[in-house]
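dumping this here so i dont lose it
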């Protein structure tokens, strides 16, 4: 079940937010907080939406297939 813990190796980031953060224009401590991303399912698949710029970042089309998904809420214990 280790894959259910935070194991993102290639985060999805907004190039515009990354540039604004690099230029010191961000009003947040991190790119993650500044980007304000919404992630959720659509009728066709999964979408990552940038609230800050009101724009699509990525949409993954499942092409009518239902992928395996695990929605268990697991928390990593401190020190592990």
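and the seq i came up w/
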């Amino acid at each position: 079940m280790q894959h259910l813990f935070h194991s993102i190796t290639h985060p999805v980031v907004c190039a515009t937010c990354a540039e604004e953060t690099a230029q010191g224009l961000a009003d947040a401590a991190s790119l993650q907080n500044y980007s304000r991303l919404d992630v959720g399912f659509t009728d066709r698949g999964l979408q990552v939406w940038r609230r800050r710029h009101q724009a699509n970042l990525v949409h993954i089309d499942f092409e009518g297939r239902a992928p395996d998904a695990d929605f268990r809420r697991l928390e990593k214990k401190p020190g592990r």
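The CA atoms of residues 27 and 34 lie 7 Å apart.
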